Fold each of these.
Amino acid sequence: MATSFAESGADLELVGITKRFPGFTAIEHLDLTIPAGSFFALLGPSGCGKTTTLRLIAGLEDPTAGRILIGGKDVTDTKSYRRPVNTVFQSYALFPHMTILDNVSFGLKRRGIANATQLAHEALRLVELDHVAQRRPSQLSGGQQQRVALARAVVNRPALLLLDEPLGALDLKLRRQMQIELKQIQGDVGLTFLHVTHDQEEAMTMADTIAVMNKGEIEQMGAPEELYELPKTAFVANFLGQSNLFTGPVVSSKGDTLVVDIAGRKIEVPRNRAQRHAGDVTIGVRPEKVALVTTEPKAAGLNVVGPGRVVDVSFSGVSTQYQVQVPGLGVLTVFSQNLAFGPIVNLGAEVWLTWTVDHGFGLEDDPATAPRFEPDEDTSQIATQRRERLESELEEA
């Protein structure tokens, strides 16, 4: 089906893209190459510049500087309707008075494509909705309407398909189902997909490659597993999942591991998983890699911190999250899979935290330099803080 349906996607290249608005710079000298036929995710919090980047690619905004190339052709000055690009938005934007088939074939008929109806049926079969071709949008569920919007975009055979938070309006279960279906569809049609989102799980589920964006710059780019297992900055370590981070001086760098003094405790991290090997460094470990024990372990190859006190226990279905206050280190987070009924330790318990040396990582951030993003902020916290600042300003006024 894929070979008869879609032309191959084209690669996308952004060269030195800068976008300035009055009073602020949204994107600063962005270089990015997305290979043809890939599923690429641009991930970041609100205000990081990802949607501006998408609008520049679509031709809805003009760059202040730089070039945009699609399939090797410079389209920087090309009008949006002349670019080989289609966009699927969070809003389905279907015509309510038209049938599903007419919605999908509308653009083709306006362009005078002779077999528009046949192509529309083919696109609907791709998203498994050809059986509802004669219904109206109001007769479909939210997930079905989103698939119709996707069929309408794909039927035009764009070299590049832009997905702007397309699943944000769906409930959790349907969103996860659509993540799998979108990935399958991308593989079937072979187009280049650029997915813009702030949802970390969504990006990791679907994308071949993720670029994590912060304040108009790409902090790190790579395969989902690479970014998760080996984050290079505190921003990536905390935005793509959660991390326990520690800062201290390297006291030994012999052999295959670094030894870092963290509040008087010696913690090891593999040299090949660390970005900095001398001076003050920040190292970390993911919460699911950490184990809770009630007696101090002595096994070799383990990092051990404690004793600490469990200050919070939160059940979340497949796992339980524990917050452990460790003197000198602050509060550490542990995720433990629920293999039995009830928590493995209760609130107030004294525990030690352990993880294998191989699970640690070291960041390239200079601890002496204030991070551009507070490690414990996520998108919802940013929104809350902005609202609180606005309310404070209104009260003062």
Note: The longest strand covers residues 302-315.
Amino acid sequence: MLPRRALVVTGTFLLSVLLYVDRVCISTAKGPITRELGLTDTQFGWVLSSFAIGYALFQTPAGMLADAIGGRKILAAIVAIWSLFTGLTAVAWNYSSLLVIRFLFGAGEAGAFPGMARAVYTWIPTRERGLVKGINFSGSRLGAAFALPVLATAVDSLGWKTTFAVLMGVGCVWSLAWWLWFRDDPRDHPTISREELAYIVAHRQAGADPAPAGKLPIGHMLRSKGLWLMMVQYLFANFTTFFCLTWLYPHVKATYNLNSADAGLYSMIPLLCGAAGNIVSGGLVDRIYASGRHALSRKLPAIAGFLLTSLGLVMSVQQSTVGPAIVWLSLAVFGVDMILSPSWSFCIDIGGQHAGQVSGTMNMAGNIGSAIIGPLFPTLLLWTGSANVFFYLVAACSGLAAGCWLLADPTKKIEAVPAPSFST
């Protein structure tokens, strides 16, 4: 019988695929949306940022909610909510309405990865955590990669409004299936074997408890140096990630004068390499951890990833044709995706029972980076007439992010606030 935790990983992998299919759909539909609503590139950049702002602002609250009510309720609810706003994107009638809908779409998606982190905390043994998080995030890259050419074709043939409506229906199906099958406590799952249950309980993180977590005051949480380092490096990482998920397709199409299908195919290659980066890094995290070097298992893959990102970004702008440029961009995306498994594993390490809240706070900072990139890329392009300044800037930030990891220590947990005592 297939282990039940493998099905948990499958479910969260598919969720990650859906998460990014829904995100990148708007980029593939940029042409018809901007024409129909009369938007400039800068306005469209702010539409992309409105998603990132909503997504960032609700990360910590969504993480706290995931810790309080568990992965079953939070994931079923938020997938239904964001799917609704995916569909409502099709009824936007002007710039302002599109800004509001995409902001609410981002707020709806905010609980996805914190909810997954909570499920991983209770279901997945610590020795398997790196690869599991790598698989989760590879789904996001595979979803975005295959979505670019497929959705470009769907938008051309079905129209952008129908495409968004179809995606709404797919999300609702996942939400219902998750609610019916998943349980927060492996001991409550009706089909898990006694052998697998004993293995999970014996090897998951010390203190892992599916019961609702107590309160972790935000002020107390923010005293953690490790969390601040994770927030900064994740912000810088999202400069590259969000560009690839939003502006890469229109950038490649315009720069190299490609048609929609070719631009989609070229744009999917870096994202496929990102999926590979997630798997490679996740396996490396677990291999180093198994050797007894806990801190190094988080630090080494992330530092190597950021250095590859810097190199790939700098070299990509030296190329005059689309093929070599995509090769170097693929190296950059492979590198930046190497940081995902160690980053989220780090937050689960230091957060423990508050894994959702802590990882959500890191993700909030990362998506502040996403919000910056939305309008920054077209603005720099307008001012300088070239994408080079943008790529050099992001390469420098990736180097700084590698430095953050040199100072980070995943063994320094965020201690719970002791309950007040009263003497008589």
Note: The longest helix spans residues 260-290.
